[in-house]
C-alpha cells in the first residue's frame, strides 16, 4: 500500500510539474540563471511524463528516425532520415532512399559521441567524417544518445571478438546428422549462444547508463537544493528531490536485480552450452539408430520377397504391381518418408539446388535495340544473351512459389479473412521478379509445361501456349487441399528507348471448394528501367481489384510506382478489404518484394489531407498488424544463377515421363542453361523457322477447305486448336478464354503421346 501511495504521489507531482512549466520559454542552462528551478522542473516533468507520449521504438538492434543535420552556412540544419543498425549510423535524404542511395555512414566502433547543449550532439570518427546533429527536443536527443552509446559498446565488443570469434565454442566432434552436416548444426548452437551473450551485455550497458544518468540527476537536484530558495519554488524543489530519491532507490533495486541476473547467466552459460551440446549429440545418435533400423527393415523385406519368389502363391502378382525403392543404397537421388495412414515408403524426388553459372558474354545491346523502339517485343528476334534459361510457361508457373497462401485460404472460416490470403498471394507472385532482368523464352505454339508436386505440395500444374500472335498461355492448377487456380495471360510489351513496359492481359481465377468462393484479379504493369545505360532494375505499378464473386467482397490493392522524391518506402503496396456494402474490415500493407501484413479495422472515419483527386482520405483505426506473407530468401550463389529462387532452379530440371512438347525438352533452352550460347542461338533460329513453316502450312490448309465465296472475303487465317484446352466464353468475366478439358495426366500415366505435335 505504501508503494502504491508513493507511485500515486509521483504521478500527481508529474502532473503538477507539467502545469508549472507549461508557460516557460527560457532556454538558459547556466546554474546562476534565475530560471534554473523552472528548467529543472521542466526536465524532470518531461522525464516523468515520457511514457505518456508516443516514442519511436527500435526494431531489434535497429533505431530509425528524423534528425536535423548541419549541411552548410547557407542551408543550415536540414532534416535527414538516420538509421542505426549493426554498429553503423547511416543517413538518407528520405526514407525512400534506403533501398538505393546512402548519403553517408559512420562506424560507431571507433567514433566519439559528444553533447553540445539541450538538443545538439556531435558524432565523429576522428577523421574526415563529423556529423553535427540536432534533435527536435532534449528527450529525443537523449533517446538517440542512449541508442548510440549502446550501439557503440556493442560494436566495440564485436570488433574486439572478431579475431578469436571461434574460440569460445569449440566445434563438436560428434558425427554429422543424416542430410545435414554437424558443423552447420553446431554453428546454429553457437549463434544462439552468442546472441544470448550479446543481449546480456546490452543489459549490462543499460544498467551502467541508468546508474550514470541517475547519479547526474541526483547531483543536479542536490545543487538546486543548496540554493535555499524560499516560497513555493523551494517547496516544489524539495518535493522533486524527494521523488527523485524514491526513483533512485527503485532504480538501484532494479539494477541490483539485473546484476544478479547477469551474474547468474554468466555463471551458468557454460553449463547451458554443455547441456545444449549433449542434447544435440543425443539427437544425432537417435537419427543414426533410426537409419540403421530402416536399413535392417529394407534388408528384411527384400529377403522376404526373395524367399517368396515367383510361383509361390498369388503374392508374386501383387509384388510386381508395387515397385520397392531402396532409398538408402540403390537410389541416393530419392529420399523416403512414411505416408499416413499406411506404412508404405513413398519416394520423393530430391530436387536440384544449382544450375550452371551464367557465362559472362559481352554484347552490344544498342546495336540490336535501336531498331526496335516502339515495336512489340514478342515480334523482335532476340538472341539468348538477353534470356534466362526458362520459358514463359515456366515463369507463369512460378506464381505457385507461395502456394501455401492458398492452402491457408482454403481453411479459413471467414470469407473476409480468406480474401486477405488471396490478396497476399496476388502480391507474392511479383517477389520473384525483383532481380530478374532476364527475358524468358517465348514458348513455341503448342509448347507445354507440367509441374507435378502432388506428393510434396498437393498440386498439379499444366501450362500450354495456345496462341502465338498474340502470344497467349493457358494455365490450370488443381490442388488436393481444396482449391483450383486457372489463368490465361497474354503479354503486351513496348520498348520505349529508356525503359520496357510489360502489360499482362487476362484474368486470374482462384476457386475454393469450401463455400464455393470464386475470386478473380488481373496483373499490374512491369517496367524494366535503364535498358540502354545504367544498371537494369524492375518496378511494378498499377492497381488490382481482387473480387469474390460469391459474396461480393472486394480488395483494392495499389502498387505505388517508384519516385525519387517520394518519402514512402520503395515498392510499397497497400490495400483495403471491404464487404459487398463497402464496409472496410481489413487493411493490408507491405512491399511486393519483401512481406505483407494485414490488420483488422476497428473504426474508420473521413479526415486528414485530401487525396490526389481532391477526395477526402479515410482514416482507419486497426488492431496490431499480423504478417501474412514473407519472401523466401534466395539460395546461396543466386547472383550467378540468374537470381533464380529455389523453385525456379528446379523448373527446367530434366524429368522422365513428361510430354514431348514440354519446355524441359526444348533444345535451345537446354543449350543456354549449359552455357553453350552460340549453339543455343543457332538452335533458336531453327525452331522459329520451323514454327513459321508450320503456320504457313496451316494457313494453306485452311484456305483449301473454304468455299470460293469465303476465300474472297480475305486472306486465309490460322485454324490452330490447342491440344489440352478448349476455347470458350468465361461465365464470370464474359471473356473468350481457353479452359482445361482434361486428359493430360491420364495420357501421361499411359505414356501414349502419339497425338502430340513434334514442335522441337
TrEMBL record:
The keyword Membrane applies. Residues 168-178 have a biased composition (Low complexity). This is Oxysterol-binding protein. Keywords: Coiled coil, Lipid transport, Lipid-binding, Membrane, Phosphoprotein, Transport. It comes from Scophthalmus maximus (Turbot). It comes from the Eukaryota. GO terms for cellular component: cytosol; perinuclear endoplasmic reticulum; plasma membrane. Residues 60-153 form the PH domain. SMART domains: PH. It is a peripheral membrane protein. Residues 662-703 have a biased composition (Basic and acidic residues).
Amino acid at each position: 500500500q505504501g508503494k502504491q501511495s508513493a507511485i500515486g504521489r509521483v504521478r500527481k507531482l508529474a502532473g503538477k510539474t507539467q502545469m508549472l512549466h507549461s508557460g516557460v520559454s527560457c532556454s538558459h542552462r547556466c546554474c546562476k540563471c534565475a530560471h534554473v528551478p523552472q528548467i529543472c522542473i521542466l526536465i524532470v516533468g518531461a522525464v516523468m511524463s515520457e511514457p505518456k507520449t508516443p516514442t519511436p521504438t527500435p526494431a531489434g538492434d535497429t533505431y530509425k528516425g528524423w534528425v536535423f543535420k548541419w549541411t552548410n552556412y547557407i542551408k543550415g540544419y536540414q532534416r535527414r532520415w538516420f538509421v542505426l543498425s549493426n554498429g553503423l549510423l547511416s543517413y538518407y535524404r528520405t526514407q525512400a532512399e534506403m533501398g538505393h542511395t546512402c548519403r553517408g555512414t559512420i562506424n560507431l566502433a571507433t567514433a566519439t559521441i559528444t553533447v553540445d547543449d539541450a538538443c545538439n550532439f556531435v558524432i565523429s570518427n576522428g577523421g574526415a567524417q563529423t556529423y553535427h546533429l540536432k534533435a527536435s527536443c532534449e528527450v529525443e536527443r537523449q533517446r538517440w544518445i542512449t541508442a548510440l552509446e549502446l550501439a557503440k559498446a556493442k560494436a566495440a565488443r564485436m570488433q574486439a571478438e572478431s579475431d578469436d570469434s571461434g574460440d569460445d565454442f569449440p566445434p563438436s566432434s560428434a558425427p554429422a546428422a543424416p542430410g545435414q552436416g554437424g558443423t552447420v548444426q553446431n554453428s546454429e548452437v553457437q549463434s544462439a549462444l552468442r546472441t544470448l551473450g550479446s543481449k546480456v551485455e546490452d543489459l549490462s550497458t543499460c544498467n551502467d547508463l541508468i546508474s550514470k544518468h541517475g547519479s547526474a540527476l541526483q547531483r543536479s537536484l542536490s545543487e538546486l537544493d543548496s540554493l535555499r530558495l524560499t516560497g513555493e519554488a523551494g517547496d516544489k524543489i524539495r518535493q522533486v528531490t524527494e521523488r527523485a530519491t524514491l526513483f533512485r532507490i527503485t532504480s538501484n533495486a532494479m539494477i541490483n536485480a539485473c546484476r544478479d541476473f547477469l551474474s547468474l547467466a554468466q555463471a551458468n552459460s557454460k553449463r547451458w552450452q554443455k547441456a545444449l551440446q549433449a542434447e544435440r549429440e543425443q539427437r544425432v545418435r537417435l537419427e543414426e539408430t533410426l537409419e540403421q533400423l530402416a536399413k535392417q527393415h529394407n534388408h528384411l523385406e527384400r529377403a522376404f520377397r526373395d524367399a517368396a519368389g515367383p510361383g509361390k502363391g498369388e503374392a508374386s502378382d501383387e509384388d510386381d504391381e508395387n515397385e520397392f525403392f531402396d532409398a538408402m543404397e540403390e537410389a541416393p537421388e530419392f529420399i523416403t518418408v512414411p505416408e499416413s495412414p499406411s506404412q508404405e515408403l513413398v519416394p520423393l524426388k530430391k530436387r536440384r539446388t544449382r544450375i550452371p553459372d551464367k557465362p559472362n558474354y559481352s554484347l552490344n545491346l544498342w546495336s540490336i535495340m535501336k531498331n526496335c523502339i516502339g515495336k512489340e517485343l514478342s515480334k523482335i528476334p532476340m538472341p539468348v544473351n538477353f534470356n534466362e534459361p526458362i520459358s514463359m510457361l515456366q515463369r507463369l508457373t512460378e506464381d505457385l512459389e507461395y502456394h501455401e497462401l492458398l492452402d491457408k485460404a482454403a481453411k479459413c472460416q471467414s470469407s473476409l479473412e480468406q480474401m486477405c490470403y488471396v490478396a497476399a498471394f496476388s502480391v507474392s507472385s511479383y517477389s520473384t521478379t525483383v532481380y530478374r532482368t532476364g527475358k524468358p523464352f517465348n514458348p513455341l505454339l503448342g509448347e507445354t509445361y507440367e509441374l507435378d508436386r502432388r506428393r510434396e505440395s498437393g498440386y498439379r500444374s499444366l501450362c500450354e501456349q495456345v496462341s502465338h500472335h498474340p502470344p497467349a498461355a493457358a494455365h490450370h492448377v488443381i490442388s488436393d487441399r481444396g482449391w483450383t487456380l486457372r489463368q490465361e495471360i497474354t503479354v503486351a510489351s513496348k520498348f520505349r528507348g529508356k525503359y520496357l513496359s510489360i502489360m499482362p492481359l487476362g484474368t486470374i481465377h482462384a476457386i475454393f471448394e469450401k463455400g464455393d468462393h470464386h475470386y478473380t484479379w488481373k496483373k499490374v504493369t512491369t517496367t524494366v528501367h535503364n535498358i540502354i545505360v545504367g544498371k537494369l532494375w524492375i518496378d511494378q505499378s498499377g492497381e488490382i481489384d481482387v473480387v469474390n464473386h460469391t459474396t461480393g467482397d472486394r480488395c483494392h490493392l495499389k502498387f505505388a510506382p517508384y519516385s525519387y522524391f517520394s518519402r514512402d518506402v520503395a515498392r510499397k503496396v497497400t490495400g483495403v478489404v471491404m464487404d459487398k456494402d463497402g464496409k472496410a474490415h481489413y487493411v493490408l500493407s507491405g512491399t511486393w518484394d519483401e512481406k505483407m501484413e494485414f490488420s483488422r479495422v476497428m473504426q474508420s472515419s473521413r479526415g486528414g489531407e485530401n487525396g490526389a483527386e481532391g477526395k477526402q482520405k479515410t482514416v482507419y483505426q486497426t488492431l496490431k498488424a499480423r504478417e501474412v506473407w514473407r519472401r523466401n530468401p534466395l539460395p546461396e550463389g543466386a547472383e550467378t544463377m540468374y537470381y533464380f529462387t529455389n523453385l525456379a532452379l528446379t523448373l527446367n530440371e530434366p524429368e522422365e515421363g513428361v510430354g514431348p512438347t514440354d519446355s524441359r525438352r526444348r533444345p535451345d533452352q537446354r543449350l543456354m542453361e549449359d552455357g553453350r550460347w552460340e549453339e543455343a542461338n543457332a538452335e533458336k533460329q531453327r525452331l522459329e523457322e520451323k514454327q513459321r513453316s508450320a503456320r504457313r502450312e496451316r494457313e494453306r490448309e485452311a484456305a483449301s477447305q473454304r468455299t470460293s465465296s469465303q476465300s474472297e472475303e480475305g486472306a486465309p487465317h490460322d485454324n490452330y486448336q490447342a491440344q489440352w484446352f478448349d476455347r470458350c466464353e468465361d461465365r464470370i468475366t464474359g471473356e473468350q478464354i481457353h479452359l482445361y478439358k482434361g486428359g493430360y495426366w491420364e495420357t501421361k500415366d499411359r505414356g501414349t503421346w502419339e497425338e502430340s505435335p513434334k514442335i522441337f
